[in-house]
Amino acid sequence: MDGNTNHTLAELVQDLSGWEHFKQTTWNYIVDPVNWTTWLTVVLKVIIIYAAGHIVNMITRRAVSHMIQEREKSPLKFDPRRTKTIGKLIGSLISSTVNFFMIILILSQFGFNLAPILAGAGVLGLAIGFGAQSLVKDVITGFFIIFEDQFAVGDVIQTGTFKGTVEEIGIRVTRIRNWTGEVHIIPNGLITQVTNFSSHNSLAVVDVTVAYEADLEKALVITKETVLRVYESSDLIVKEPVVLGVQTVTNTDVTLRISAECRPNTQADIMRVLNLELMKALEQNGLKKIG
């Protein structure tokens, strides 16, 4: 019984001695000026890294906001909701990237081994890059389409063999509806060349054919009067049409050519109006229009 008691007391004394040693070691570590200097240095570095990351995020947000405002002032017809959505997406992407590197730098100040983290992120990025090359290409091309003002919703464009009105510009695909109603869904990565019919004024070219025997001078006067009347009554024509003169001459007829600068993608409507008015004017003045 005495042996067991002595053994228990010895263990208790040893535990108390170990606890006292732990407290003393901890206290010495806390009050050591060298350790305080190290901690303050780490805290200062963390604050600097955090402040730098915050400043970078603030600058990028303002840059994206300025870019969005410039796009909204563009003459092309952008969908404001889509533009703001893309702006937020870009801002979020940049912010996430900055925050990731900021966390990595902060962890490095506390002695964490970052090699496994960076290696894992590299392997993951490589796997995503190989597995989704076409998707990444579509997304990147979609961003460039929007921010380079290549075309916008409502524009009439042609890319490859597809021509029609742009109904939607997505991050991955673009939807185009042609004049007969079919909708073409085209991955952005396949859009390599684009012809935009809606970004600048268009030119309507009309050929008027009269009989070879007709009074040519009279036909020219009537043609000029008619196109001037159409110009004054239409808000789609931006400049007074020009009667260029005789385009072709055959054994049976003479062709006169007229050009009219009109609003973007309205040349077909203007050509129809001019053809109708010229046909009526020539017939009313006894100048038969052939064809």
UniProtKB/TrEMBL annotation:
Q: Is Transmembrane helix included in the keywords of this UniProt record?
A: yes
Q: Where are the transmembrane segments?
A: 42-64, 85-108, 114-136
What InterPro entries does the entry give?
LSM_dom_sf, MS_channel_1st, MS_channel_C, MscS_beta-dom_sf, MscS_channel_2nd, MscS_channel_C_sf, MscS_channel_TM-2, YbiO_bact
Please verify whether the record's keywords include Membrane: yes
Q: What is its main location?
A: membrane
Mechanosensitive ion channel transmembrane helices 2/3 domain spans which residues? Answer: 100-133
Q: Where in the cell is it found?
A: Cell membrane
Q: Where is the Mechanosensitive ion channel MscS C-terminal domain?
A: 205-287
Question: Which keywords fit this entry according to its UniProt record?
Answer: Cell membrane, Membrane, Transmembrane, Transmembrane helix
Family matches, as Pfam families? MS_channel_1st, MS_channel_2nd, MS_channel_3rd
- Positions of the Mechanosensitive ion channel MscS domain: 135-198
Q: How does it sit in the membrane?
A: Multi-pass membrane protein
Highest taxon above the source species? Bacteria
Write out the similarity annotation.
Belongs to the MscS (TC 1.A.23) family.
Name the UniProt record assigns to this protein: Mechanosensitive ion channel family protein
Instruction: Please give the organism.
Output: Paenibacillus hodogayensis
